Please model this.
Amino acid sequence: MTTITTDRPPVAAILALGLTEIIGCGSLYYNFSILAPSMAHDLDWS
Model:
């Protein structure tokens, strides 16, 4: 049985997960403010 040890963390994976988290939260947060006026108009909300 072989054991593989690495001394450094997976920097590329950490950066990719951080970037996708920022993009995901940002798009979820800002889409409501962009789409709310047109949704209200289409659904006849006041």
Summary: The helical segments are 11-42. DSSP finds one helix and no strands in the chain.
